[in-house]
Amino acid sequence: MSDSPTSHRPRILTGDTPTGRLHLGHYVGSLENRIELQDKYDCYFLLANMHAFTTRADAPQDIRTDTIEIVKDWLAVGIDPDRSTIVLQTEVPAIAELTWYFAMLLPFNRVMRNPTLKTEIEAKDLGDTYSFGFPMYAVGQCADILAFRPELVPVGVDQVAHIEMCREAARRFDQFYCNVNPKTEDDDYASAGGLFPVPKALVGRIGRLVGTDGDNKMSKSLNNAIFLSDTAKQVKKKIGAMYPGQSRNPDDPGNVEINPVFGYADAFIKDAAAVDELKDRYRRGDNLGDGHVKAAVIEAVNELLEPMRQRRAALEGKDGDERVIEVIRTGTAKANLVAEETLHLAKQAMGLDFGARNLAWR
Ligand code: ATP
Ligand code: MG
């Protein structure tokens, strides 16, 4: 690890919930930015395994497997554990403790009105039987982030509402406990004496990639995802089966706007001029069928995924699992130093500094 916990490089915190493997939506929404910013920032990438229990408390073994698989996806995609810190949420007790304090700073109805929670309840068919912990995860996410006092949070568009709540929690804490004037500009909270910076969401190149159903957000839980670990054959099959929308309606030939395959062409074919040409010919009905567009997209996606497949293959099996667990342990030990420092400073600000606590974990 190149950075000490007190490093002055600005920090990034983001992460994924181990509810399945990572897909192309994660890549364009957040992973790409993470990889790019590894050198400029002190990066912390969190495995939100505690939050996976909010919807899958009955499946601890699946959560464990998904946790390990997500780290394999991260390493395959180019997250480098020598430059970035991989953090396991359940072994950073400061996060759970901070969650309580932030829960007192956010009105109950404010949390329950969070549009991302509402969408998730619908999309995942949670009805009105979801656990008490489910909406609590949105508060927990404020603690995940603020435990690391980061400047930036690289996320997809669906997370922006959560980051907004986190920004509110940071402002309120700084106003209540660090005497920061409520009129202070967001960028100035830290220099005005606040413990927490007001962090910014950094939305990826494509904030919301549509799934292969052409309708919903690509999601691990909706059976509409192309996974980073899919084989070339699986990619071909999934894209090959995509429905091109109404684009072949004789009254509206070649409507590229409503054909989701063109969304993927924009996202994954590097040569923008080639995409424009495809669109142009498709619009004009110039002897260019859906099969042709799909073949071009399949090739581009497979070109992106091939090096990831190769790096992932090196992590297969028991040795791969052991390597992942070592990466988790090393990263989490470092993360605890930062999170414990934050908690200590937060409690000091709140008049709760009755003694020092040391915590080591391997
Ligand atoms: P789940 O269905 O369990 O909620 P998910 O696929 O939505 O899974 P998350 O772990 O909730 O994945 O999201 C991890 C990160 O990836 C977040 O920053 C999120 O905004 C981003 N992300 C997820 N899906 C997409 C997508 N289809 N397009 C762009 N970004 C996405
Ligand atoms: Mg999600």
Give me the Rg, rounded.
Answer: 22 Å
Count of DSSP-assigned helices: 13
Report low-confidence residues grouped into runs of 5 or more: none
Strand runs, count? 5
The CATH topology of the largest domain, please?
Rossmann fold
Small ligands present? adenosine-5'-triphosphate, magnesium ion
Query: Any idea what the CATH architecture of the largest domain is?
Result: 3-Layer(aba) Sandwich
- Class based on secondary structure composition and strand pairing: mainly alpha
| Integer average pLDDT | 92
* Spatial order of strands in the largest sheet: 1-2-3
Could you tell me how far the N terminus lies from the C terminus, measured between alpha carbons in angstroms? 16 Å
Per CATH, the class of the largest domain reads Alpha Beta
- Share of residues in helices: 40-55%
Mind sketching the topology for me?
Layout: E1 11-16, H1 24-37, E2 42-47, H2 49-56, H3 60-77, E3 85-88, H4 93-103, H5 108-112, H6 115-123, H7 133-146, E4 152-155, H8 160-177, E5 200-203, H9 232-240, H10 260-268, H11 272-284, H12 290-313, H13 317-349
Parallel strand pairs: 1-2, 2-3, 4-5
Helix pairs in contact: 2-3, 2-7, 3-12, 4-7, 4-13, 7-8, 9-12, 10-12
Bound molecules: adenosine-5'-triphosphate and magnesium ion (MG).
The site of adenosine-5'-triphosphate has 20 residues, from helix 1.
